[in-house]
Request: fold
Amino acid sequence: MKKLHLLDSFASSHHGLINFDAAAERGVSRATWHRLIVGGYLDQLYPNVARLWGSPASFEQRALAAVWAAGPGAMASHRTSAALWGVERPADDDLDVILPRRGRHSLPPGVQIHRPRDVHELRPIMRNKVPTTSPMRMLLDLGAVDEGAVGDALQQVVASRVVSPKAVYAFLIRHAKQGRHGVTALRTALEDLLIDGRPSDTELEQRMAVLLREHGLPRAEFHAVVEGFEVDFHIVGSRLIIECDGWATHGLDRDQFEFDRYRTGELVAGGYVVIGCTWRQVVDQPEKVARRIRRAIETWAPELLAHATGARIAS
Reply:
């Protein structure tokens, strides 16, 4: 059929889908639309939304079909938006669609319609050719339907550089109204994430000073310059370096990643041993970090332990 060729051109760029409005713009009447469905050329998914016969099924296809079926202004949201932004989600999740305007609307089982009171900054972004909410909005909305998933979702979108923690925090502040669902979950997730971020110099220095002192380890110089590079800590009187990495510096910036590898290589070539730890480990597992440092000292500078009656950070 000649009309079918026109629909195929549209469907090929919309995950194999066609809606009646698009079909009508291409000269397809309501009667012809129904004949195509009855004849098996179109597989009707929702009223006025169909899949072209032979088009492979996909998550994006399901999401776009639900959005179209919900009507003008609709966009994928909550769990569906999370999946579109690259967050791992269960395969049996319901589809979530947000409608900026209130009113009566119903869809078949498996599609959840959300009509928010908070419509500030609610505008669609095309993601894999599906209108969806912004990643910041997604994180806030996800907390309203799957509170326990917000932490992992936040880490995944930050790691993929879709958003920054700073941008998410600013968005949260703008939308943190009393009674707003999802605020508590996102705030908690941000707090957990930021502990992985690099702390201020003062806090890092103080934490390491306490760790070394409480575990009877030798003193360390903070921000020492070794082999022409500034390092986090240098165990005084040894060739041991302690580097404390945070979320913000742990593989998210390619240039920083390359420089860190180059610096470590130069330090090792110069005869230094680099002991790595994370800020989270310093905060949550100080005993584990202390044992790692002690083992390194026992191997490379055992004489220091004989003189260590405590430790302090040398400025």
In short: The chain has 14 helices and 15 strands. The radius of gyration is 28 Å. Confidence is low (pLDDT under 50) at residues 247-252. The first strand starts at residue 17 and ends at 19.
